[in-house]
Amino acid sequence: SQYAETVERIRVWCEREQIIEGAVIIGSQARDELAADQWSDLDVMLFLHDPVVLLDSRDWLDQFGNVVCVFNEIVPLHFMDWDWRVRRVLYDDRRDVDFSLLPHAWVDEVLMVNQGILAKGWRVIYDSSGGDLATKIQAITAALDDTAPFSFSPQEFHNTINDLLFHIIWAFKKIKRGELWVAVRCINSYIGNLLLRLIEWYNATISRTSSRIMYEGRFLEHRTDDTLRGQLRHCITTYGAQDAVDTLGHLLDTARFLAQTLAERNGCTWDTGQFDRIRKLYFEMKDSP
Predict the structure, then answer these.
(1) What pLDDT, in 10s, does the model give residues 154-192?
(2) Is 169 helix (H, G, I), strand (E, B) or coil?
């Protein structure tokens, strides 16, 4: 692996630095399913008493290579007493390393928040406690039922469909008003996320492929059949009014296909007339000046 030397350098550094209490490799470099390749990054969880010490310092990153750029990504966890802090680093040989700087005092909560990721693979490379960290991870991942079938409720199904259809017309109105940037963002981001939710339900229902690595659409192409994959190329728009309008039409067709398939395979009801009414509105707006 291109990161083998990096991991060893990090391990040696952790042993030398008294502020580090533990280091765990997660993500593609630690899992078996869809494991790392030449394009993968390295994800490292660093446990220390004061994460801020490393958050604003850059010198410690230089010992792992020549830094091209580095930035802080902070995700507020409003239900916790700490935030998820990451230093994301790109080196001049194309390696990118994400250092999650995590409070050791909250190690149990940190591991629980990351339970799903840890269940897919992990490797402790340093532990000042001599094994306690690995024991905690084993207990937390053992408690996760990763074999449970992926499912959705009829309420979730109908709400997602209605949300998507509503925003198809909403985005079209923005195009008509000349707010193309807003419309394109809505299509590719908001509607795209709703479409992804339907696709994941479809994959679990139809494709029967692994659903373990599915967060934010990861490896979607490996888990989606040719029938649906062929439709997706038309569901993302460029920054152009005509392309955005055409994409909304394709999204409507794809949503209808997904709704019908999911309803039939999961015993849900669906309103075919609703799609017809949205299509009518779509073409009325398309034909209007």
Answers:
(1) 999 999 999 999 999 999 999 999 999 999 999 999 999
(2) helix
Determine the Cα–Cα distance for residues 148 and 119; give it in Å rounded to an integer. Answer: 13
Q: In sequence order, what DSSP letters do the residues of 16-85 get, joined into one string? A: H-TTEEEEEEEGGGT-STT---TT--EEEEEEES-THHHHS--GGGGGGS-EEEEEEEEE--TTSSS-EE
Burial class (CB in 10 A: 0-12, 13-18, 19+), 40: middle
What span, in angstroms and rounded, lies between the C-alpha atoms of 13 and 154? 52
Beta-carbon contacts of 108 under 8 Å, excluding residues fewer than 6 positions away, are 136
pTM, two decimals, is 0.84
Angstrom distance (rounded) from CA 4 to CA 66: 17
Q: What is the DSSP letter of 242?
A: H
What is the enclosing helix (H) or strand (E) of 100?
strand 96-103
For the segment 240-257, what is each residue's pLDDT rounded down to a tens digit?
999 999 999 999 999 999
